[in-house]
Design goal:
Distance between the termini: 39 Å
Number of strands: 5
Radius of gyration: 14 Å
Strand content: 25-35%
Largest sheet: 5 strands, antiparallel
Shape: globular
Low-confidence stretches: none
Number of helices: 2
Oligomer: single chain
Mean pLDDT: 88
Structural class: alpha+beta
């Protein structure tokens, strides 16, 4: 989304799109507390272990297209 775009959710929380993140990530600031977060495709936390462990697989979805599939690894103890 363009920097400055504001999304308000059903729980009344809001985030605002910021500039500065390299595609396919989007940077947002929580308007209720100011915390910044980068989201992969605007939906998944860039800091999530499953996103970090599978970034190359997730990027293979780009451009988005119906029918593409992938298998993700999940990092865990043991």
């Amino acid at each position: 989304p363009a920097p400055g775009t504001i999304y308000t959710f059903s729980d009344s929380s809001s985030i605002q799109a910021l500039a500065g993140a390299a595609a396919p990530f989007c940077r947002f600031a929580n308007l209720n507390g100011g915390q910044q977060v980068d989201l992969f495709l605007g939906a998944f936390s860039a800091g999530s272990p499953i996103v970090q462990a599978n970034i190359d697989v997730l990027k293979a979805f780009l451009p988005l297209q119906v029918g593409k599939t992938a298998h993700l690894a999940r990092v865990g103890s043991g």
